[in-house]
């Protein structure tokens, strides 16, 4: 596996693969990789012939009080994991390479509708930063397909809409969330948790499963269900950011007639913000 740091080297390496008739898959990441990322790379290798991963901690998607500075940068360990998962090329640019004219005047994308509310409500500008960097990566690599984890459900919806609205010739795949044995969704931010917080964190997925079970069983008073869910999560020592039931395609608040649903949660354990979701169908 080759690691390149400039757009010029990236384009040259991808062009060589394309000249050999290879189909290109891109797995964008911010590094500090875990088994969820490795699963994306493995899946990319099954869907395409040449797998490009990117590692870039994108300042444009962090708010001024968020964890940009402390976000773990673990390039050497990440390179080992990518190699093992079958990655062919790693693009690990500097901030200057991605934003040569600085971030202030950078053209930004706003994906309307799906970017609003949920994480978009709590993290103003976050999805503009995500959409902008993902679109830049798409233009740099020009992959046939790109793979993202379903753990970031709203992010996936934003990227799908971005691709549709801008007619980008890229197939977007959402891949299932990888979880620890106790149900906690794998996340680079889990590493911030102390032992006590780590022991409390599985309440998120437990609550999502219980709520989905109740809805599948016929419960339709979503406000009451969510109030119970919030209480359960708070009793475990977490501070709720949001817990909501939405229809899963456009992320509109769920109405009685919707049958493709997703329950989404964000909550703080100390200063660590965790997110999770559970999509399901009702008959
Ligand atoms: O999900 C992430 O790691 C990031 O938001 C992404 C998609 C790599 C864009 O920076």
Explain what the structure shows:
The protein has 283 residues and is an alpha/beta fold. The chain is built from 10 helices and 9 strands. It has 2 domains: 2-175, 3-Layer(aba) Sandwich (Rossmann fold); 188-277, Pantoate--beta-alanine Ligase, Chain: A,domain 2 (2-Layer Sandwich). 39% of the residues lie in helices and 20% in strands. The strands form 2 sheets. The protein has a 6-stranded parallel sheet with strand order 1-4-3-2-5-6, with helices on both faces. It has a 3-stranded antiparallel sheet with strand order 7-8-9. Helix 2 (35-47) packs parallel to helix 3 (75-85), helix 6 packs across helix 7 (153-165) and helix 9 (203-216) packs antiparallel against helix 10. The mean pLDDT is 98. Pantoate is lined by residues 28-30, 58, 61, 130, 133-134, 152, 155.
Order of secondary-structure elements:
EHEHEHEHHHEHEHHHEEE
List segments where confidence is low: pLDDT < 50 over at least 5 consecutive residues: none
Taken as a percent bin, the fraction of beta residues is 15-25%
What is the averaged pLDDT score? Answer: 98
Any idea what the radius of gyration is? Answer: 19 Å
Considering the protein shown, what is the CATH homologous superfamily of the largest domain? HUPs
- Bound molecule kinds, no repeats: pantoate
Number of E-type strands: 9
Major beta-sheet overview:
6 strands, parallel
Distance between the termini: 47 Å
How does the helix and strand content classify structurally? alpha/beta
Number of distinct helices: 10
Number of spatially distinct domains? 2
> How do the strands of the widest beta sheet line up side by side?
1-4-3-2-5-6
Q: What is the CATH architecture assignment of the largest domain? A: 3-Layer(aba) Sandwich
| Shape descriptor | globular
The helical percent reads: 25-40%
Examine the coordinates and then state which fold CATH places here, giving the name of the CATH topology of the largest domain: Rossmann fold
For the record, what CATH class of the largest domain applies?
Alpha Beta
């Amino acid at each position: 596996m080759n690691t390149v740091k400039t757009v010029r080297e990236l384009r040259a390496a991808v062009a060589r693969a394309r000249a050999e008739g290879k189909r290109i898959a891109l797995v964008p990441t911010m590094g500090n990789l875990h088994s969820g990322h490795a699963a994306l790379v493995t899946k990319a290798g099954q869907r395409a012939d040449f797998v490009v991963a990117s590692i870039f901690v994108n300042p444009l998607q962090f708010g001024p009080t968020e964890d940009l500075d402390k976000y773990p940068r673990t390039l050497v360990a990440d390179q080992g994991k990518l190699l093992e998962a079958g990655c062919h090329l790693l693009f690990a640019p500097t901030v200057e390479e991605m934003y040569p004219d600085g971030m202030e005047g950078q053209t930004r994308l706003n994906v309307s509708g799906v970017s609003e509310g949920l994480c978009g409500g709590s993290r103003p500008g976050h999805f503009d930063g995500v959409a902008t960097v993902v679109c830049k990566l798409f233009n740099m690599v020009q992959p046939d397909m790109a793979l993202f984890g379903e753990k970031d459900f709203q992010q996936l919806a934003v990227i799908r809409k971005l691709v549709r609205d801008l007619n980008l010739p890229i197939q977007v795949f959402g891949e299932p969330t990888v979880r620890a044995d106790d149900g906690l969704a794998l996340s680079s931010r889990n590493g911030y948790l102390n032992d006590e917080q780590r022991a409390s964190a599985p309440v998120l997925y437990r609550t999502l499963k219980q709520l989905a079970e109740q809805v599948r069983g016929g419960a339709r008073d979503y406000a009451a269900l969510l109030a119970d869910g919030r209480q359960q999560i708070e009793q475990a020592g977490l501070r709720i950011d949001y817990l909501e039931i939405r229809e899963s395609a456009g992320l509109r608040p769920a109405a009685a007639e919707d049958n493709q649903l997703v329950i989404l949660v964000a909550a703080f354990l100390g200063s660590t913000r965790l997110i999770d979701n559970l999509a399901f169908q009702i008959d």
